[in-house]
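Researcher: Next entry in the queue.
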Amino acid sequence: MRNYLCKKCATLVKSDKKPISFNCPSGGNHQWTDLGEVGTTNYQCQKCAIHVKSLKKPISFDCPSGGNHQWTDLGEVGTTNYQCQKCGLLLKSQKKPISFNCPSGGNHQWTQL
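Model: Structure for this entry, 113 residues:
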């Protein structure tokens, strides 16, 4: 299973093969980027706020916000829910996620749910 991201509409799809490109909500066809294998580490791009669970640091090019992604390793996927009060990201983590590089500016403000 791999993570695919459309650089036009920021849709994230987990699939065994490249998704169909027709009918991007942003017009025309999707422009898929293979970010890498689905895994057990939470990553978030500081620029576009996309959250992926990946085996290793995702590919950096083709950020929907322009240029390259700026990935932050937020920690291992787990069973406890955490939500950032600033950017709204909700994720499952083994322990409190890393606070650096919130897309809303400064540091994440995590609350355990």
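Model: The CA atoms of residues 27 and 34 lie 20 Å apart.
Researcher: Noted, moving on.
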